[in-house]
Every structure is written in C-alpha cells, then in structure tokens.
Amino acid sequence: MVIPQPPLNEQVFPSTPCDHKQHTKPSLKKVGSYTLTKTLGKGSTGKVKLAIDTESDKKMAVKIVSRKIMKSESDNKDEKVKTEIRREIRTVREASMMLLLDHPYIVRVEEMILVDDFYYIFMEHVDGGQLLDYVISHGKLKEKQARHFSRQIASALDYCHHNSIVHRDLKVENILISRAGNIKIIDFGLSNLFSPRSHLSTFCGSLYFAAPELLHGRVYTGPEVDVWSFGVVLYVLVCGQVPFDDPTVYGLHKKVKQGLLEFPSHLTSGVKDLIQRMLITDPQKRATMSQLMSHPWMTKGFDEPIETHLPLRSPLQLPLDLNVVRNMTGFEFGTEDTIIEKLESLI
Q1: Annotated catalytic residue: which of 19, 57, 158, 169?
Q2: I want to staple 69 with a disulfide (CB 3.0 to 4.6 A). Which of 84, 122, 175, 259 is the partner?
Q3: Is 169 labeled as catalytic in the residue annotation?
Q4: Is the pLDDT of residue 188 over 90?
Q5: Domain range for 339
C-alpha cells in the first residue's frame, strides 16, 4: 500500500474557517525586487511560488494569500465579511509568529509585503524537496535515518511549544528536506498560540494526521495534537504508509478514533513502543514532547539530548517596552492598555 496523497489543503472539517481555498490569482509577477516564477506548491492558506531577487539572484519562496472576499452560495454579506476577517487575521498571525521564530529546522520567514489585495510572505527557499517524495522514492526509511529526521522534528516542535505555538497541521507534506539532509517544517497557516490554562476549539488539519479528539469535536490544549501528528509522521517514515487508512471518510474516522495499530515485522521494539505512546487516543495519556524526546529510541547512538535551540531570556521587568506591547496587539491579546494591565499584574 502506498502513502495516500490528499490535496495539500485538505481539511478535516470543511465547514470551519480553516477550509478556505484559493480561487483568485494575483496579476503581479514582480513584487519589490523579486520576480515571481514557477509554482512550488499549495499550502493551507495560499499558493507558494519561487521568487528570484533581480539584483542578487537570491532565491526565496513566497506564499501568496488573497485578501478578497470570496464568492459564497450564501447571500449573507456579514458572514462573508466575518470569514474574510478571520482569514486575514490568520494570515497576519502566521507571518507575525514565523517572523519571531529562529530555529534551524523551521523555515525562516524574512518579510511580509501587502500589495493591493494580496499578502506576499517571503521565506527561505528549501532546495531538497518534500519529505513525502523522499519517503516515496525510498519506500520506507531505515530506523537510523528516521531517527535523524525525528530528532529534528522533535526539536522544532518543542521549540514551538516552549514559545506557546502549536502547529496543528504537521504532516509529511509540510516537511521539506534541504540538500544538506536536514528537515524544515513549513506552513504555519493553521498554527495558533495556546495556553495550558485554556483550550482551543478550531478543528482543522489533514485527516490522515489528525488526532482523534479533533474528530470527536472536543476542545484541546494544543501540544498533544502535534504529538499525535508527529506519531503518524514517524509511522510513515519507518513503514512507508499511514497507520490508519480506509476508502471512505467514515471508515477512516472510525479507525483513527479506535487507534488500533498494526506494525510490520521489520520494526524494532523501540520504535514500536515510541509510536504506540504517541498514538494513544486519550490525549491525557499520550506521551508529552519531553517524554518522547528522552525515549530510548530517540536517544540511541547520541550522547547529548536533543537541542531545542531555545534562547536564554531574562525575566520580564518594569517598565514594559511599549514597542513590544504595540506589536502584541496583532495576536488578539486585546488593546495596548489591556496588554499592559495583564503584564503588570503578572509581574
């Protein structure tokens, strides 16, 4: 059985705001000093094209997201406006968060430009192709190689979670490989900030990689859904196929919710144990990122723990930096006065 390849923008719940598809094409072929060339792919919120700097010949990948209100079967203009606002917030949030991220295994975003009705998010160009294509060409990976990629994925996810960001759309299609043989996680279009003291309620992502609590329509904290998706990715790496598959959506939902796993005989007990801990249907019992990063299979052959590349940060002190507060308003934390009040109460 080969790895099923649903469209890159396939969503679990088509009725949610996360299902928006690109129908409008930008007329511009040049933005700033960049000339836009071939299409590299499509993400959850927009098309990605290759951009070449006309002055330096530097290659970049640029995600193009339309601001225009899309046509709808409904005549409810208020709902159209709400959908567009949600989508624009998501676009700005993705770019704002990725501009703050600095990790060797997460694609780097350099700038976002708004031209007419389109956002252009410029990010580093990864020249090695998709992890999906790599797995397909090899059938399945040896565990040593899968461990190499898995340690890098774990490093990137742990970095995100320590910065209160949950990806929510981790899948093999959203992992690239550089020519140096290192992974780069892309497409944070469905990502969001999370807090251990609250819950998220937007249910989106790729069905093959979605955690069962999403299919049950339950609220969630955040990191646990990334752990589940990571478990599916690891299974794909070492088995060459997804753990749950069915010709019907209903059947696939049922299998994911049951979480019954079958392993090929060539796998070691170590990787099977790790995957089983990641693909536990009860999110409360599922392995945490710290637990899977210290798992014997993950650490085999390595003397050092997985490096998360987290920077050292000084404790927050008064007076607050108003420039930082001003930039926080784009993350739905409230007005500047509200943010200041909350931060000062925490200090």
Answers
A1: 169
A2: 84
A3: yes
A4: no
A5: 314-347
